[in-house]
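Subject: sequence -> structure tokens, single chain

Hey, anyone have a minute? Need the predicted structure for the following. Not urgent.
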Amino acid sequence: GRVTGVQTCALPSSETLSSLNLISYIILILALLNYANLLSVRGYSRSREVGLRKVIGAHKSQIIFQFLFEALVIQLIAFGLAFILTTIMVTPLGDHFGFYWSVEQVLNVKALGLLVSFPLIAFFISGLLPAISISVIPPLSLSLVLVHRQQIRRI
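Reply:
Had a minute. Here:
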């Protein structure tokens, strides 16, 4: 007789999986750099705050710490949401695509290394780049940016 409801598919080769992994890592790095760029722009929009803190006497390290702390909070929230959504969606997606995921497959040394290292790398890229780029600008330059921005608004 005929068997219904059972689908079989060929597994991809290890070269194909390695290529897809490399492409996914490149996309993740590009997304992180884009995110860091967006945070830098957001930091420049906060130039009034940074300039005021510098005029009051804040040190470069204090401004860097502020931006790093904000990046850390955002990264922890994003990582927590991603982990929750992954654990919720893995079973329905596995059923749909025909693969089955177990906790033992995820809790291996390589996967745990990625789970710990990727948020740390993301934190430093998304936190350090904007923090350093904004903290090195002298207060006078920050105030000139504000004056220029106000002149553009009037036009």
